Amino acid sequence: MDEQVQVIRVAWCSLMDLPQSQDWPLQFEWIRVDALALSAKGFDILVLDIKSFHNLEQVKYLYSTIGLPTVILVDTVEQESAVLDWLQPGDETCHRQAVDRQIGLRLQRSFWHNQQRHSLHLDKLTINTNLCQIWTVLIALFLLWRLGIWRLTSLTPNHSMKMGLNDENKTRIG
Fold first, then answer.
1. Which of 9, 10, 81, 117 is deepest in the core (most CB within 10 A)?
2. What is the reported pTM?
3. By C-alpha distance, which of 75, 145, 73, 126 is closest to 103?
4. Within 13 Å, how many C-alpha atoms sit on residue 48's CB side?
5. What pLDDT score was predicted for residue 40?
6. pLDDT tens digits along 88-106
Protein backbone atom coordinates (compact mmCIF):
# COMPACT_ATOMS: atom_id res chain seq x y z
CA MET A 1 0.00 0.00 0.00
CA ASP A 2 1.48 3.34 -1.04
CA GLU A 3 1.43 6.01 1.63
CA GLN A 4 1.33 9.60 0.52
CA VAL A 5 4.26 11.44 2.11
CA GLN A 6 3.52 14.98 3.17
CA VAL A 7 6.16 17.41 1.99
CA ILE A 8 6.84 20.27 4.40
CA ARG A 9 7.61 23.51 2.54
CA VAL A 10 10.38 25.37 4.37
CA ALA A 11 11.00 29.07 3.75
CA TRP A 12 14.81 29.28 4.10
CA CYS A 13 15.74 32.91 4.91
CA SER A 14 19.51 32.51 5.02
CA LEU A 15 22.55 32.93 2.82
CA MET A 16 23.83 29.58 4.10
CA ASP A 17 23.73 26.63 1.73
CA LEU A 18 20.47 24.71 1.82
CA PRO A 19 20.70 21.63 4.08
CA GLN A 20 21.32 18.27 2.46
CA SER A 21 18.53 15.72 2.66
CA GLN A 22 18.95 13.25 5.49
CA ASP A 23 16.92 10.43 6.95
CA TRP A 24 14.43 12.62 8.84
CA PRO A 25 10.88 11.43 9.62
CA LEU A 26 9.47 14.39 7.67
CA GLN A 27 10.24 15.27 4.08
CA PHE A 28 11.30 18.89 3.58
CA GLU A 29 11.22 21.02 0.45
CA TRP A 30 13.76 23.82 0.97
CA ILE A 31 12.92 27.12 -0.72
CA ARG A 32 15.38 30.01 -0.46
CA VAL A 33 13.42 33.20 0.22
CA ASP A 34 14.47 36.81 0.69
CA ALA A 35 13.38 37.69 4.22
CA LEU A 36 12.23 41.15 3.18
CA ALA A 37 9.89 39.72 0.52
CA LEU A 38 8.58 36.88 2.68
CA SER A 39 4.92 36.13 3.13
CA ALA A 40 3.44 33.09 4.85
CA LYS A 41 1.59 31.99 1.71
CA GLY A 42 2.54 28.53 0.59
CA PHE A 43 4.97 27.74 3.41
CA ASP A 44 4.56 25.37 6.33
CA ILE A 45 7.55 26.46 8.40
CA LEU A 46 10.14 29.21 8.49
CA VAL A 47 13.91 29.36 9.07
CA LEU A 48 15.24 32.83 9.93
CA ASP A 49 18.98 33.49 10.02
CA ILE A 50 20.03 36.30 12.34
CA LYS A 51 22.83 37.17 9.88
CA SER A 52 20.23 38.04 7.23
CA PHE A 53 19.01 41.00 9.28
CA HIS A 54 20.55 44.27 10.46
CA ASN A 55 19.49 43.70 14.07
CA LEU A 56 17.54 41.39 16.33
CA GLU A 57 14.50 43.69 16.35
CA GLN A 58 14.01 43.04 12.61
CA VAL A 59 14.08 39.29 13.25
CA LYS A 60 11.57 39.67 16.07
CA TYR A 61 9.26 41.84 13.93
CA LEU A 62 9.24 39.41 10.99
CA TYR A 63 8.80 36.44 13.35
CA SER A 64 5.82 38.05 15.06
CA THR A 65 4.11 39.07 11.80
CA ILE A 66 4.47 35.86 9.76
CA GLY A 67 2.86 33.46 12.24
CA LEU A 68 4.49 30.23 11.04
CA PRO A 69 6.33 27.63 13.12
CA THR A 70 9.90 28.95 13.14
CA VAL A 71 13.50 27.96 13.72
CA ILE A 72 15.93 30.84 14.23
CA LEU A 73 19.61 30.34 13.35
CA VAL A 74 21.97 31.88 15.91
CA ASP A 75 25.75 32.14 16.29
CA THR A 76 26.27 32.83 19.98
CA VAL A 77 24.79 32.00 23.35
CA GLU A 78 24.04 35.72 23.79
CA GLN A 79 21.97 35.76 20.59
CA GLU A 80 20.16 32.60 21.61
CA SER A 81 19.37 34.05 25.05
CA ALA A 82 17.99 37.23 23.49
CA VAL A 83 15.81 35.22 21.09
CA LEU A 84 14.55 32.90 23.84
CA ASP A 85 13.25 35.98 25.64
CA TRP A 86 10.46 36.38 23.03
CA LEU A 87 10.34 33.03 21.20
CA GLN A 88 6.96 31.31 21.54
CA PRO A 89 6.68 27.75 22.91
CA GLY A 90 7.13 25.23 20.14
CA ASP A 91 9.48 27.37 18.09
CA GLU A 92 13.20 26.62 18.14
CA THR A 93 16.70 28.02 17.86
CA CYS A 94 19.57 26.25 16.16
CA HIS A 95 23.27 27.13 16.37
CA ARG A 96 24.83 27.69 12.96
CA GLN A 97 27.58 25.10 13.54
CA ALA A 98 24.90 22.46 14.31
CA VAL A 99 22.67 23.08 11.28
CA ASP A 100 23.79 19.99 9.35
CA ARG A 101 23.05 17.67 12.28
CA GLN A 102 20.07 19.40 13.92
CA ILE A 103 18.03 21.54 11.53
CA GLY A 104 15.75 18.69 10.46
CA LEU A 105 15.11 17.69 14.05
CA ARG A 106 14.46 21.29 15.12
CA LEU A 107 12.04 21.81 12.22
CA GLN A 108 10.31 18.53 13.02
CA ARG A 109 9.84 19.50 16.69
CA SER A 110 8.49 22.93 15.78
CA PHE A 111 6.17 21.54 13.09
CA TRP A 112 4.80 18.77 15.32
CA HIS A 113 4.29 21.15 18.25
CA ASN A 114 2.31 23.45 15.97
CA GLN A 115 0.21 20.50 14.76
CA GLN A 116 -0.47 19.48 18.39
CA ARG A 117 -1.58 22.99 19.25
CA HIS A 118 -4.15 22.92 16.43
CA SER A 119 -5.36 19.40 17.19
CA LEU A 120 -6.05 19.80 20.89
CA HIS A 121 -9.29 17.85 20.71
CA LEU A 122 -8.17 15.18 18.23
CA ASP A 123 -7.58 11.60 19.28
CA LYS A 124 -3.90 10.83 18.64
CA LEU A 125 -4.60 7.29 17.41
CA THR A 126 -7.54 7.83 15.08
CA ILE A 127 -7.15 11.56 14.30
CA ASN A 128 -10.88 11.91 14.97
CA THR A 129 -12.43 14.39 17.33
CA ASN A 130 -11.84 13.23 20.87
CA LEU A 131 -15.39 13.36 22.20
CA CYS A 132 -14.25 12.21 25.65
CA GLN A 133 -12.19 15.39 26.07
CA ILE A 134 -15.02 17.58 24.82
CA TRP A 135 -17.57 15.85 27.09
CA THR A 136 -15.21 16.21 30.05
CA VAL A 137 -15.01 19.97 29.50
CA LEU A 138 -18.78 20.27 29.02
CA ILE A 139 -19.50 18.24 32.19
CA ALA A 140 -17.04 20.37 34.17
CA LEU A 141 -18.72 23.57 32.94
CA PHE A 142 -22.16 22.15 33.76
CA LEU A 143 -21.05 21.26 37.30
CA LEU A 144 -19.54 24.71 37.81
CA TRP A 145 -22.82 26.23 36.58
CA ARG A 146 -24.91 24.03 38.89
CA LEU A 147 -22.72 24.94 41.85
CA GLY A 148 -23.20 28.62 41.00
CA ILE A 149 -19.50 29.20 40.33
CA TRP A 150 -19.78 29.83 36.59
CA ARG A 151 -22.47 31.49 34.51
CA LEU A 152 -23.16 32.64 30.99
CA THR A 153 -23.30 36.42 31.32
CA SER A 154 -24.35 37.36 27.80
CA LEU A 155 -24.81 36.18 24.27
CA THR A 156 -23.77 38.76 21.68
CA PRO A 157 -25.48 39.22 18.29
CA ASN A 158 -22.69 37.30 16.54
CA HIS A 159 -23.40 34.36 18.89
CA SER A 160 -20.19 34.62 20.89
CA MET A 161 -20.55 34.00 24.60
CA LYS A 162 -19.18 35.89 27.56
CA MET A 163 -18.61 33.78 30.61
CA GLY A 164 -18.14 34.94 34.16
CA LEU A 165 -17.22 33.60 37.55
CA ASN A 166 -19.70 34.35 40.31
CA ASP A 167 -18.23 36.03 43.33
CA GLU A 168 -20.36 36.79 46.35
CA ASN A 169 -21.24 40.35 45.35
CA LYS A 170 -19.04 40.82 42.28
CA THR A 171 -19.03 39.26 38.85
CA ARG A 172 -15.74 38.93 36.97
CA ILE A 173 -16.32 38.58 33.25
CA GLY A 174 -13.75 36.71 31.12
1. 10
2. 0.63
3. 73
4. 33
5. 62
6. 888 999 999 988 888 888 8
